[in-house]
Design brief:
The complex is a heterodimer of chains A (about 425) and B (about 270). With about 425 residues, chain A is α/β, with parallel strands linked by helices. Chain A has helices spanning about 25, 55-60, 85-90, 110-125, 160-175, 175-190, 195-200, 210-220, 250-270, 295-310, 330-340, 350-360, 380-385, 415-425; strands at about 70, 75-80, 95, 100-105, 135-140, 155, 225-230, 240-245, 275-280, 315-320, 340-350, 370-375, 390-400, 405. In chain A, a hairpin with a 6-residue loop joins strand 1 (about 70) and strand 2 (about 75-80). In chain A, helix 9 packs parallel to helix 10 (about 295-310) and helix 10 (about 295-310) runs parallel beside helix 11. The N and C termini of chain A lie far apart (about 80 Å). Chain B is of the alpha/beta class. Chain B has a single domain, classed as P-loop containing nucleotide triphosphate hydrolases (Rossmann fold). Chain B has helices spanning about 40-55, 80-90, 110-115, 120-140, 155, 160-175, 200-215; strands at about 5-10, 30-35, 75, 100-105, 145-150, 180-185, 215-220, 235-240, 255-260, 265-270. Chain B has a ten-stranded mixed β-sheet, sandwiched between helices. Chain B is globular, with a radius of gyration of 18 Å. The termini of chain B are close together. The chains are: A alpha/beta (about 425), B alpha/beta (about 270). The interface of A and B includes residues 298, 305, 306 and 389 of A. Chain B: This is Elongator complex protein 6. Chain B: Belongs to the ELP6 family. Chain B: Pathway: tRNA modification; 5-methoxycarbonylmethyl-2-thiouridine-tRNA biosynthesis.
C-alpha cells in the first residue's frame, strides 16, 4: 500500500534537468528517495543542453529580459512603473516600450513625485538583478542634481516582525554547534510523529496557488517590486545606474545628449531598457523663464517623443507636471497632453473632503484615501481611438510601504454616529413642526 | 443605450460617398478633422486612407459603392511615424507598405533637429518652412488626396506666423483635389480675446479660425458631454464648412453620429 499519488513525481534527486530525460530513463522506475546516486553513473543525456536551448531561442531577446513582460492588452514589450497599482491602471501592466507617460498633479501636494521616485527605483533595481553583471536598465534623469538619487525608496523587506523572523531563520541555517544541538534536542522531543501525521494529511505542503498565477509570479518575479517609502535605496545609485543630464539653454543640445547616452548604452547592451525621467517639470526653481517658454519645452518633448519612436524597443519616458502653474487649459499642458502617450492626473482631496473621509474611516485609518486618480490617456489604446478617460473612478492613498490605487466610492458615514454627533453639536436642529403631508 | 439603436453606415456627402470622386470641373475640397485628447480620430483617418486608396470603407460602411477612380494619397504628419498608420490600416485590410500610390512624409522625426533647426531667426525659420514644403510639393506627381496631420505644432514651437503656414497649406490644396487637415488642438485653447500677435495662443486661434473659413467640410470627434459610457466612445459631428463645393449638386451630409470603438478596434455608428 502506498500513499503516493499516481502522477506525483518522486522527489529526492532534485534535478532540474528532468525535461531532458529520455523515455528509457523513466522506464527504469522511480529513484528511491534518500538513496544517493552512484558516482560516475550519471547518464549524459540528462544534462544535455540540446533540449533546453531551443526554448530560449524562440523567445525574442528583448522579452526574455527579466524587467520586460508582454502587455496584457497588446502583447507589446512593457516595463513596470514601480507601482503595481499604476501598472494595472495603465492596462498594459506597465508602460509599453517606446511610450511616454505624464503625471499631472493639481494641488500644492507632491504625491506625483512618489510615483516618479518609484519609477526610478524600479529601474535601478532592475539594473542590479544578477548582481549588476549584465546591465538590463539605465536611467537618464534630466534637470536634477545627483543628490536627488540619494532619496530614492528602497525595496520593501517586510514588517519589523517579519524582518526579525528572517534574521532568526538565517542565523538558524548557519552551521554552528549550538544550532546542531538544538536540532537534535528538538527531534528527540517530537520524535518525528507530528511530521508523519502532517505528511499524511498534507499539512506540510505549501499552499497551492492557481497554476496561472504561479507561472506568472515565477516568470516575472523580478518585473515589479514593492518599495518602502520610509527606506532609502542602499547602496545608493551610481553612474552605472543613472546618467544625470543638466538643463541647457538650447533644447537641441539636451536632446543630442540624451540621444548619445541611449545610443552608447544600446551599443554596449542591445537589450537594455532606458528610462528617461524629467522630475518636477517646469518648476520655477529648476526651469528658467526661457526654459519654461513654449518655444523651448514643446520642441523638447516633441523631439524626445521622436527619440522614443526611434528607440521604440528600448526607451520609455516619464515626467510630472504641477497643474497649479500650468492648468490643463494652458497652451503648454494642452500641447503636452497631445504629445504624450499616457496621461494620469492626481487630484488630491480638498480639506472638506479629507475631513469627511477621516470621519468616515476613523476606526480604519488605513482606508483613508488622499485623492482621486483620473486616467486621461492610456498608451497605445487612446491613440487608436478607444475611450480611456476615467474621471473620478479611482482614488489613491500614499502609505509608508505602498502607493495604492483603488476604485473610489464615496464613504458612508454611520447614521447612528452622525445622528449622535449632530445631537451633541446642534441640539436645536430638530424641528418641532409636523412634517407629514 | 446603443443596443436599441440601428447601426448606421458613415457617409460624408449626399452622393453617399466618404471621399467623393474627382472630375476636372470640380473644385478642390478642404476638410478639417479635429479631435479631443480622449477621442482620437485615428480610426477615421485610417478609414479615409482606405477609401482614398481602395475606394472601400469596410469597417464603417460595408454598403459603400466603391470609387471608380482610386486616388494616389499623400500623408504628411507632424505627429506620428509611418508605422502608426501602417498598423492601423492593416486592420482595414490595406497594406500601405506595398501600395505604390501611397506616400508618407514623416515630418515628425527630427522636426526640430533637422527640418526646422532651433536658434535661428524668424526669416531663417520661414526659409526652412518653405524649403520643407518645397521638398514635399516637389515629390507630388499627380493630383493626390492629401492629409496633413497636426500642422499647428509649428505655430506653438516656432516663430512661424499663422498666415505663412496657411500659405504653405494653400500651396498643397492647389495641387490636390481633396485635402484633409487633422487638428489635435483642443477647442478650449482657442481664445479670440487676445491681441498680442506673438502669443502662441493667439497664433493658434488665428490659424484655426482662418482655416475653418476655407473649409468645405468639418468633422469633429469629441467625448460624450454626459461623461463616459461603456457602450459609447464619443460623438462624430459632420457639418458643412463656409466654403461652397463646386459642383453645387454635391452637398455635405450634415449629421451627428454616436460611435463606439471596442478593444478590437471595430467601430459602430449610430445616429444621434
Amino acid at each position: 500500500m502506498s500513499f503516493r499519488k499516481r502522477g506525483e513525481v518522486v522527489s529526492g534527486t532534485g534535478n532540474p534537468l528532468v525535461v531532458g530525460r529520455s523515455p528509457a530513463l523513466t522506464a527504469r522506475g522511480p529513484v528511491v528517495p534518500g538513496r544517493s546516486t552512484v558516482p560516475g553513473r550519471n547518464n549524459p543525456i540528462r544534462g544535455s543542453p540540446s533540449t533546453a536551448a531551443p526554448v530560449a531561442s524562440t523567445a525574442s531577446n528583448n522579452v526574455s529580459s527579466p524587467c520586460i513582460r508582454p502587455s496584457i492588452v497588446t502583447s507589446q514589450p512593457t516595463v513596470s512603473t514601480g507601482s503595481s497599482d499604476l501598472d494595472k491602471l495603465l492596462l498594459h501592466s506597465g508602460i509599453p516600450l517606446g511610450c511616454s507617460l505624464i503625471v499631472e498633479e493639481s494641488s500644492t501636494t507632491d504625491f506625483a513625485s512618489v510615483l516618479v521616485r518609484l519609477f526610478v527605483s524600479q529601474g535601478v533595481l532592475h539594473n542590479r538583478i544578477d548582481d549588476g553583471n549584465v546591465q538590463l536598465c539605465h536611467l537618464v534623469v534630466v534637470g536634477m542634481p545627483q543628490s536627488w538619487a540619494n532619496d530614492l525608496p528602497g525595496p520593501y523587506k517586510g514588517t519589523s516582525k517579519e524582518q526579525k523572523k528572517l534574521k532568526i531563520k538565517e542565523n538558524e541555517q548557519k552551521i554552528s554547534v549550538s544550532n546542531l544541538s538544538n536540532i537534535q534536542t528538538e527531534r528527540q522531543r517530537t520524535g518525528g510523529s507530528d511530521l508523519k501525521i502532517a505528511w499524511r494529511y498534507g499539512l506540510n505542503k505549501p499552499e497551492k496557488e492557481s497554476s496561472d498565477q504561479m507561472v506568472e509570479t515565477e516568470t516575472y518575479s523580478n518585473y515589479s517590486t514593492q518599495f518602502d517609502l520610509t527606506q532609502k535605496f542602499s547602496p545608493p545609485p551610481s553612474i552605472q545606474d543613472i546618467s544625470f543630464v543638466a538643463l541647457s539653454p538650447n533644447f537641441t543640445t539636451l536632446v543630442n545628449q540624451i540621444r548619445q547616452i541611449i545610443s552608447t548604452k544600446i551599443k554596449q547592451h542591445p537589450d537594455i531598457v532606458i528610462r528617461i525621467v524629467l522630475p518636477n517639470l517646469l518648476t520655477p526653481s529648476l526651469y528658467s523663464p526661457t526654459q519654461s517658454s513654449p518655444q523651448f519645452i514643446l520642441p523638447l518633448f516633441h523631439s524626445l517623443q521622436s527619440l522614443l519612436s526611434t528607440y521604440s524597443n528600448n526607451a520609455i519616458l516619464m515626467t510630472l507636471i504641477n497643474l497649479d502653474l500650468y492648468t490643463r487649459n494652458h497652451l503648454i499642458t494642452s500641447t503636452l497632453e497631445n504629445i504624450f502617450d499616457g496621461i494620469i492626473n492626481l487630484q488630491p482631496f480638498n480639506q472638506q473632503m479629507s475631513a469627511l473621509i477621516e470621519k468616515a474611516y476613523k476606526n480604519e485609518p488605513k482606508r483613508i484615501q488622499q485623492g482621486l486618480v483620473n486616467v486621461i490617456k492610456v498608451p497605445v489604446l487612446s491613440e487608436r481611438g478607444a475611450m480611456m478617460v476615467r474621471m473620478g473612478e479611482y482614488a489613491f492613498k500614499n502609505g509608508k510601504h505602498k502607493f495604492e490605487i483603488e476604485s473610489w466610492g464615496i464613504p458612508v458615514i454611520d447614521e447612528e454616529d452622525s445622528a449622535s454627533n449632530n445631537q451633541q453639536d446642534i441640539p436645536q436642529a430638530q424641528t418641532t413642526k409636523n412634517i407629514d403631508f | 443605450m446603443s443596443s436599441g439603436r440601428q447601426q448606421q453606415q458613415l457617409v460624408f456627402f449626399n452622393d453617399h460617398s466618404i471621399i467623393p470622386e474627382t472630375s476636372d470641373e470640380d473644385s478642390s475640397i478642404v476638410g478639417i478633422i479635429s479631435e479631443s485628447p480622449g477621442t482620437s480620430a485615428a480610426w477615421l483617418v485610417a478609414t479615409l486612407i482606405e477609401n482614398s486608396l481602395q475606394g472601400s470603407a469596410n469597417h464603417i460602411n460595408s454598403e459603400l459603392s466603391k470609387r471608380r477612380i482610386k486616388s494616389p494619397t499623400l500623408f504628411i504628419s507632424f505627429k506620428h511615424v509611418g508605422d502608426f498608420y501602417k498598423k492601423l490600416c492593416k486592420r482595414n485590410g490595406v497594406d500601405l507598405a506595398t501600395i505604390k500610390d501611397f506616400q508618407y512624409v514623416d515630418l515628425f522625426t527630427d522636426l526640430f533637429t533637422k527640418h526646422i533647426p532651433s536658434g535661428t531667426t524668424t526669416a531663417a525659420t520661414n526659409k526652412h518652412l518653405t524649403s520643407m514644403f518645397d521638398n514635399v510639393i516637389g515629390g507630388i506627381k499627380s493630383t493626390p488626396v492629401i492629409f496633413v496631420e497636426y500642422p499647428e505644432i509649428l505655430l506653438t514651437t516656432t516663430d512661424i506666423s499663422p498666415n505663412e503656414l496657411l500659405v504653405q497649406l494653400d500651396r498643397l490644396c492647389k495641387l490636390s483635389s481633396r485635402t484633409f487637415v487633422l487638428l489635435s488642438t483642443d477647442r478650449t485653447l482657442i481664445d479670440f480675446s487676445l491681441t498680442d500677435s506673438s502669443d502662441p495662443v493667439f497664433k493658434v486661434s488665428d490659424f484655426i479660425s482662418k482655416l475653418y473659413h476655407r473649409s468645405n467640410i468639418n468633422i469633429y470627434c469629441q467625448p460624450l458631454a454626459t461623461g463616459r459610457a461603456n457602450d459609447l466612445t464619443g460623438t462624430l459631428c459632420i457639418s458643412r464648412g463656409p466654403n461652397v463645393i463646386e459642383p453645387r449638386t454635391l452637398n455635405v451630409a450634415s449629421r451627428d453620429y454616436l460611435y463606439h470603438i471596442n478593444r478590437d478596434g471595430n467601430v459602430k455608428l449610430y445616429l444621434r
